Amino acid sequence: MEHQRLSGNALLFLLPTAPMGAKQMKDLASLFASWASQEERKKDLDAWNLTLRCHHVVPHIQHRESSYVSARVVGCQECGERRGVASSERVGPAYRDDGTVRDLAEADRERLAQELAAAKAKLAPQQKNAAATQRRITEMQEELSKES
C-alpha cells in the first residue's frame, strides 16, 4: 500500500488546536459582550413595501443602511410564485422601541403624516411669496389703469 505525503498545510488540519489561555478567553468574552443585543439590532431595521411585477405589494425588512432594496426577485404571498420587484418604497422602522413588529399601516400613516407636515412647512413661505406677488400685480394693474 502506497502512503501519500501530506504537505505542511494539510498536516495542520489534522492536529488539534492548542487550548485558549485565560487572556484569550477574557478577550473573546469581551468581544462577544460588546456586540449589540438582538433587540438593539432590531432598531436598525426598516420595513419596505415591494411592488411586484404581478402588481401585488409585499412587505420586506432590511437594514437601515441600505438606500434601496437589494432583492430583485421575492415570493408573492398572493400568487404563490416568485416574482420580480418592480418598485420599492421605504415605510419606516420595522420594529417599535419595545422590540415588537410595527403595523405597516400604522407606519404608512406616520410616514404620510411626516411628509404632510414637511409639505405644509414648505408651502407656507411659498404662499407668502405668492401673496406678495399678487399684491404687486394688483398695484401695477392699478397704476396702469390710472395712466390710461
Report on this model:
- By secondary structure, this protein is α+β, with helices and mostly antiparallel strands.
- The protein has helices at residues 8-14, 22-34, 38-42, 104-147, and strands spanning 45-52, 57-63, 73-75, 82-93.
- It is elongated, with a radius of gyration of 31 Å.
- 5% of the residues are buried.
Q: Could you say which structural class the secondary elements and strand pairing correspond to? A: alpha+beta
Largest sheet: 4 strands, antiparallel
* Unreliable spans: none
SSE order:
HHHEEEEH
Cα distance spanning the termini: 120 Å
Number of distinct helices: 4
Record field, number of beta strands: 4
> Taking all residues together, what is the mean pLDDT?
82
| Cα gyration radius (Å) | 31 Å
List the helices and strands and how they pair.
Layout: H1 8-14, H2 22-34, H3 38-42, E1 45-52, E2 57-63, E3 73-75, E4 82-93, H4 104-147
Antiparallel strand pairs: 1-2, 1-4, 3-4
List keywords for this structure.
148 residues; 4-stranded antiparallel β-sheet; 4 strands; elongated
Task: Summarize, please.
This protein is of the alpha+beta class. The protein has helices at 8-14, 22-34, 38-42, 104-147, and strands at residues 45-52, 57-63, 73-75, 82-93. Helix content is 47%, strand content 20%.
